[in-house]
Amino acid sequence: MKMAQKNAYDRMMSRYDDVLTGRKWWSWLYMHWLWGVDDNEIARKVLSFIPDDFEGKILDVPVGTMVFTHAKYQRMTNAEIVGLDYSEEMIRFASLRKKSDELHNLTLVRGDVGDMPFEDGCFDCVLTMNGIHAFPDKEKAFAEIFRVLKPSGRLCGCFYVEGERGVGDWFVRNVLNRRGYFVPPHYTLSEVEKKLRSLFGENVQLSNNRSICLFRCVKSK
């Protein structure tokens, strides 16, 4: 991950959860006016793809601050969860949530999604929420995610795609890309479908809410 991108996220940490959840008036306007979506609803839908009684090993990349996932992980007592993130600050915030929520089945790892420190086929599920648009090498990230997923394992997540909302695309090009929060080039919705089908064949379900695509896939045996 580029140093500028890491520093951008580290500087943003004090406002990060507010931006994602829209719980301040300015972040509500950012979410609903600029993007025309409710990230809380999108997160709930993506997380519903994984049942609370899921048994197996889950990779969450990037784990971020766990603003959307920590309550879910409290209910997933049968799962072994690994959270990976490149940012030291994200790991620090996630560690605070892990401690306060007593998430004893969660392990946090600092690492690069493009070169993950895990063996082939070691995860039953990979969750990637709001991360792919920030990965510098998206093709390598997808390859690594696919590599660590077991046969019959599932991938689910969401991220930004261009070409679905003009005002959002303008903001990405002129603000988020330049400040290092997002990293171009970005997929279109059709390019995401093509990429996922190249890896998972027909075992792909894909939809979008304006500029946010949601997906779940199953790796062939």
Automatic annotation (TrEMBL):
<feature type="domain" description="Methyltransferase">
    <location>
        <begin position="57"/>
        <end position="156"/>
    </location>
</feature>
<dbReference type="GO" id="GO:0008168">
    <property type="term" value="F:methyltransferase activity"/>
</dbReference>
<dbReference type="InterPro" id="IPR025714">
    <property type="entry name" value="Methyltranfer_dom"/>
</dbReference>
<dbReference type="Pfam" id="PF13847">
    <property type="entry name" value="Methyltransf_31"/>
</dbReference>
<dbReference type="InterPro" id="IPR029063">
    <property type="entry name" value="SAM-dependent_MTases_sf"/>
</dbReference>
<keyword id="KW-0489">Methyltransferase</keyword>
<protein>
    <submittedName>
        <fullName>Ubiquinone biosynthesis methyltransferase UbiE</fullName>
    </submittedName>
</protein>
<keyword id="KW-0808">Transferase</keyword>
<dbReference type="GO" id="GO:0032259">
    <property type="term" value="P:methylation"/>
</dbReference>
<keyword id="KW-0830">Ubiquinone</keyword>
